[in-house]
């Protein structure tokens, strides 16, 4: 499994779209009234859905914690960092997670963003099926010094959404959905958080209760996360479908399977 397209509901489509193009480095792939689809090359990573009347999501709700844009190299992350510094973009944090180095910020409507690169997977430490991760201070000056040029022309080829981190109301039912139903593997337990991955990756989905413990089910659309697309193969899609109750299931052979997690967050499995 891997993350495909993340969809956000936004109030100011022009401002948010401009931010992801100018700051993050995405390029337009498709545009029509009320919708902007942005990505790298022809690959759509982010879909922005315009709803100027959408209520603003509560910081304590079950919602997006961050969308994590993965760049292929440390040099690429360093060049992005210099680009963000030249624009004067405020950062919210920077961490060395042992498996990766990450920089955090938010878009104009408060949606969390991570830009990161992965250290080579052979350097990751695994014990009993769990990967070692930590939150250490990141040496931003040392990272910036690795940039080969200050020229910036957007996210480099091969960039993708490496993972999506969610705020949830409780960790156990989140694990029941993302591991028990979808089949992701729990790869790390952290105070107040669980990380789940596929194929030996350090995580494709993160869940935490740091701000949202006890959050109720969504009662209607709000700003922020509208859908997370998870790309898998047709066999896995049918396996997940077989675990659903008859009223939840869809016909075999369909290439998209729309689901909702225990808090009403939309997750769509796609065969691809």
From TrEMBL:
Gene Ontology MF: a single term: metal ion binding
The keyword Iron belongs to this UniProt entry's keyword annotation: no
Alphabetized PROSITE patterns for the sequence: GLYOXALASE_I_1, VOC
Keyword flag Transmembrane: no
Keyword terms: Metal-binding
Recorded superkingdom: Bacteria
Transmembrane segments: none
VOC domain residues: 2-118, 160-272
Cross-referenced PANTHER family: CATECHOL-2,3-DIOXYGENASE
UniProt-recorded name of the protein: Glyoxalase
Species classification: Bacteria, Pseudomonadati, Pseudomonadota, Alphaproteobacteria, Hyphomicrobiales
């Amino acid at each position: 499994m891997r993350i495909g397209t993340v969809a956000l509901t936004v109030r100011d489509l022009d401002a948010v779209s401009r931010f992801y193009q100018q700051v993050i480095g995405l390029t337009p792939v498709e545009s029509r009234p009320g919708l902007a689809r942005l990505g790298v090359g022809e690959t759509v990573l982010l879909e922005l859905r315009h709803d100027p009347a959408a209520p603003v999501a509560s910081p304590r709700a079950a919602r997006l914690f961050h969308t994590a844009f993965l760049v292929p190299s440390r040099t690429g992350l360093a060049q992005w960092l210099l680009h963000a510094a030249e624009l004067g973009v405020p950062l919210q944090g920077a961490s060395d997670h042992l498996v990766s180095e990450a920089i955090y910020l938010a878009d104009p409507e408060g949606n969390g963003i991570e830009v990161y690169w992965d250290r080579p997977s052979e350097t990751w430490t695994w014990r009993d099926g769990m990967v070692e991760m930590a939150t250490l201070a990141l040496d931003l000056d040392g990272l910036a010094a690795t940039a080969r040029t200050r020229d910036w022309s957007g996210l480099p080829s091969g960039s993708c959404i490496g993972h999506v981190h969610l705020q949830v109301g409780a960790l156990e039912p989140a694990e029941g959905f993302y591991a028990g139903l979808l089949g992701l593997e729990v790869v790390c337990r952290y105070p107040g958080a669980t990380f789940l991955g596929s194929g030996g990756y350090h995580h494709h989905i993160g869940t935490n209760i740091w701000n949202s413990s006890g959050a109720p089910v969504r009662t209607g659309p709000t700003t922020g996360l509208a859908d997370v697309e998870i790309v898998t193969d047709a066999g896995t899609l049918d396996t997940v479908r077989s675990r659903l109750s008859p009223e939840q299931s869809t016909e075999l052979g369909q290439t998209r399977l729309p689901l909702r997690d225990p808090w009403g967050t939309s997750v769509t499995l796609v065969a691809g």
